[in-house]
Amino acid sequence: MTEVATPAAADDQRITGDILKIAGVVVLGAIMSILDITVVNVALPTFQTIFGTEGQPLAYSTVAWTVTAYTLALATVIPLTGWAADRFGTKRLYMTAITLFTLGSVLCAMASSINMLIAFRVLQGLGGGMLMPLGMTIMTRAAGPKRMGRLMAILGVPMLLGPIGGPILGGWLIDAASWHWIFLINLPIGIIALIYAFVVLPKDAPHPSETFDFVGMLMMSPGLALFLYGVSSIPSEGTVTAPKVLIPGIVGLILLVSFVFYSFKPAHPLLDLRLFRDRNLAVSIITMFLFAVAFFGGLLLVPTYFQQIRGESVLHAGLLVAPQGLGAMLTMPIAGMLTDKFPVGRIVPFGLLFILAGMISLTQITSTTSYTYLIVTLFVMGLGMGGTMMPIMTSALKTLRAAEVARGSTLLNITQQIASSVGVAIMSVILTNGLKDAQLAGPAIASRRDPAIAAQIGGEAGVKEGLAQAAQAFAHTYWVAGALVAVTVVAALFLPRKREKSALGTDRADAAPVILH
């Protein structure tokens, strides 16, 4: 990355006003990017109704693409960001990212079909995916290493509040106004952030560096999208042998396999798979992938359960999900401190056990499970998430040489985004198939919107039975998520259980911070 003038002398450890102004720009971008992910989660049942036909809501696996498309776009743009920042300058690129995200948000609000919404979510993700890595680069250059710990605490605020505030904000906007406002809220924030960035960020002095692997990107991104599209088409087609499932699935798989073999050839590949030679990195990435598939895939189902099975409003569903964010907020800083003192192999398995306990608890949910049980379960899962995510990411980078940290960070970030997309696709397909197999589930859920439907399935008794069947479909999906977490626990047992030493014989606890979405 190119050098820019710092607001204060390198040896000055004070957090000056100029640095705080720059941190304010980055925090605004982080708020937009992180809140947007959790805001949309509570809106999926609304999308099913709004974009469905009369009396026939869209399949859950279809509307889940509003999340999958966004995370795939994030994964696509993360490796592009460093190269583009060197070529065009961080200020210019950061303002472009804000513009893309804001424009994508406005277009999402104007979408008249689910396909339009998914397409505009891709545009939004392309902007959102650049905001966090660029923000980290901008802050690092402005503050220097001696002040980064304190500034990371500032940047950590939206990271911690996103899982709590996002569902509540999304629920309130949908209930008080309409679903359009979960996207339109980004317009005033985006305009303020754009003007703020123009005024505060230092002038660019770009110097193009290494080449970008466009060939790799053209294989990885379409390959993932086609493969996940094939998987997501299984519920609507009813069989894995349907052309709509097989053709995109096979083409996507061929592209992904080709990408893996190709990645060992370029000097600067899109993803440096050669880093897998480092055992700790390989174990960390495998653990991260399994964890993200299970956790983020399962996480998406919770607001939908509250709305469709329990008949809660979108706002109440958001409030009921908040304990999970509170749990993560409690353990994340503690896990960060422990990671500096103890090997992650002695920390992560305990966090995963909390998540496993939560997933197993969710396999027992019914249409009448007490809210105390559900809130405690979500809080416990949040405790586990806070003690799992950052230590895994940190572990992967600690044993890498300084020159490899940037490529390792990119590999980890993309792994997390890809795994999230895979998890959402898998869990939504399993849930959709479960609801489809339960004959009374669909009509019972639909009767909450149109009471006349209840008469078609035997009145109140039929609705009660249908909701019980629907809750069972959710419970069965959590058995899959729980099994994946159990496998993740096994993988985590291979994480380092002794402090790693660098070639100089010092503990490598100073790896660059990792950006998560």
Rg estimate, integer Å: 23 Å
Strand content: under 5%
Separation of termini?
22 Å
Protein structure class: mainly alpha
How many strand units? 0
Mean pLDDT: 82
Please report the number of helical segments: 21
What percentage of residues falls in helices of 4 or more residues? over 70%
Shape: globular
Largest sheet: none
| Unreliable segments of 5+ consecutive residues | 1-11, 502-516
How are helices and strands ordered from N to C? HHHHHHHHHHHHHHHHHHHHH
Structure description:
It contains 21 helices and no strands. With 517 residues, the chain is mainly α. The protein is globular. The longest helix is centred in the last third of the chain and has 36 residues. Helix 4 runs parallel beside helix 6 and helix 10 packs parallel to helix 19. It is a multi-pass membrane protein. Keywords: Cell membrane, Membrane, Transmembrane, Transmembrane helix, Transport. It holds the Pfam family MFS_1.
